[in-house]
Amino acid sequence: MLRIVDCFAGLVTFMKGNQDRPILLASLRQGRTFLEVFQRKCMPILEKHFLENRALVLDVFNKVQIPTRSLQVWFCSCCEE
Amino acid sequence: MLCLCSHFRLFQIGEQINHGGSLESINAVLGCPVGMFAMDDELKKAFASTFSIVQRNLVCSAIFFGINWLREVINAFAEQPDKDLQSKTLERLHQLVELERFLDELLQNHPRFTLVGSASTSASAALTMPKPVAAAKGKGKGKAVDIDPPSSSSGGGGGGDPPPSTTATMATNTGNDALASSNGKTLTVQLLRPLMQELEMSAFATLKYEKLFRYDPAYSQNSASSANISSQQALLTIRHPIALESDHLQYLLGDLAVKLASKLPTASSSSRLPWAKAAQPVEQSPRLSRLRVDEFASRVVGILPSLCVHLETIATRLQALMDDDGMLDESDALVVKSDSCIQLILRTFERLLQWTELSSTEHQPLLKTIVQHFAKRLQPTNGDAQETTIAQQASNAFAYLLGLSQALQTVKSLMSLHALLSTFLQLLLTSWPDARSEFEQLGHQLSDFAGRLLQKKNVTKETMKADAVNVLLASFITRHANALETITEFVKVLLPAFAREDDSNEADTAILAKYPSLRRDTVGTYFKVILHELGPTMAHELVREIEGSWTSDLMCLSCKYCRSQVSRPRLRSRSL
């Protein structure tokens, strides 16, 4: 799961450097789908394992949170413009 | 002239009934010449400059009726087993293609073509004539190109014939479509085809013809004058080999594609969104509508082996045209024609496999036959061929199709092959879910093939567009044995190297050279597909982890995995 979350973060970093229209649109649409899957399927597992693997779970959340926040900030600013 | 084809059809059907399908007694009709003016550049010039409208109509109508006659003759004689008749039928096919091409050129200078003999006043009016029934009864103004006989035994037409009143003329309904699409455009032969005599399924028997020879009188005289040549040798040398050429193949496959589209529904044509405008049902010509769907499909399946042979022959011919670097001159007319034929054959295969009913239990024997046809091309039949399982046969069939990729050269034909393989694999997975694990191996092979296409050298913006990249990349990732590994490579290595493209260094250049399809115009596609595949990959990986080490902790997922394992002893939960 860590690797997948890493990939997600990597893609959002790439988006920051290449703000072409197709890339931004893909980030908006597919990024949301990814986060929905994460919320629906991964969160319950992470919740169950939190006590046993606290550090790992926090690491996963850290890695998801940064790109999620970036996406939110970026698209909110786009909406305002 | 209007009734000639119908009379001949009646005549030949009578002959076939009386002589057990043989047309020996009327074979002179096939060989007898068709009186026609010289179709040369002089005529074309005069047609464009000096001819009056009436003269132009006469010329075009004569060619139109000539085309109809040739089509009917081919329908009648194509399935005759005699080699001489076959070679003559092939010549007729050649003349038919030439006539249509010539008419097409003439129509460019005569967009308001009116068929002579038609009661209507212009081609447009002829196309918008009343319904066929009215025309057949002589109440309406239109022309009645053809009134089919009530019984059709030629070419195994079979099936229940509709009553005569509904079989009259194939022209007018489809003609309306032709007119609609021709508004404001040049009239072409393509638009006139629905008005022409219909090519029956029997005509596609010409695809099965093997080595044929044509009699050449001029050559015969030279041979006869040579005293040293014995009569037996002269008999051999006065014949020229004759074969189905690319033009003929294109012509027949184009017609077959229209028939497939009108007869066999696909998932994409039936599962439209509710708010989307309903697709216009494709009009079926009367003779085609007499064939039952399964009968039509089995006749198409019958010509698959011949199409495979043609495909292999053309691919071999293309390989011979390659230069020393293994490259093809894609502007060469022969290469373009051959490549177009290959694509048409592959699309015919794909279109057949897309038929929604093919995966149903009722039509599984037909699907098995298709699989066997392809498998036999890889491994010729031997005694124990029947004993192999369907999974093995399907693997052989898939391997045969995949093996064609080595013979195909252009990106377009390789894309067509990829689409065919993808459809075939999907069909196998749907039809035989028990053999899913075997077929998943085929999916990995398909993924490798897609990867090879993405890494193909000398790919330009024109040859591989973003849509093609989208399809290939999705196929590459979804069917890959280790999708996560692939995604990681793209995200960690390829995309960062692309982002650093401006500060070029050797390492990045080497990385980017591996994927020539990653360009400025396709980077968005790469990004979109990778991000899209990330969600399903995560779900898939989770399921795999759960399968690998189930725990009752994971019951929260309420998936089939934890429900089935709930009574087992609790294991130590696996670290993330």
Compact description:
The complex is a heterodimer of chains A (81) and B (576). Chain A is mainly alpha-helical and 81 residues long.
What can you see in these coordinates?
The complex is a heterodimer of chains A (81) and B (576). By secondary structure, chain A is mostly helical. Chain A contains three helices and no strands. Chain A has helices at residues 2-17, 21-49, 54-80. Residues 120-182, 223-230, 271-276 and 550-576 of chain B have low confidence and may be disordered. Chain B is globular. Chain B has helices spanning 4-18, 28-31, 41-49, 53-77, 83-107, 123-127, 132-137, 164-167, 171-182, 189-192, 217-225, 231-237, 246-263, 267-270, 286-290, 293-302, 304-320, 333-353, 364-378, 390-407, 411-431, 436-454, 466-478, 483-499, 506-514, 523-548, 560-564; strands at 212-215, 239-242. In chain B, helix 20 (390-407) runs antiparallel to helix 21. Classes of the chains: A mainly alpha (81), B mainly alpha (576).
Question: What would you report as the Rg of chain A, rounded to the nearest angstrom?
Answer: 14 Å
Largest interface, counted with CB-CB under 8 A? Answer: A-B, 40 and 31 residues
Low-pLDDT runs of chain B: 120-182, 223-230, 271-276, 550-576
Beta-strand percentage range of chain B: under 5%
Question: What structural class results from the helix and strand content of chain B?
Answer: mainly alpha
How many β-strands of chain A, per DSSP? 0
User: What are the secondary-structure elements of chain A, in order, as H or E?
Assistant: HHH
Shape of chain B: globular
Number of strands of chain B: 2
Largest sheet of chain B: 2 strands, antiparallel
Query: What's the shape of chain A?
Result: elongated
Number of helices of chain A: 3
Strand content of chain A: under 5%
Name the helix and strand elements of chain B from N-terminus to C-terminus, one letter apiece.
Answer: HHHHHHHHHHEHHEHHHHHHHHHHHHHHH
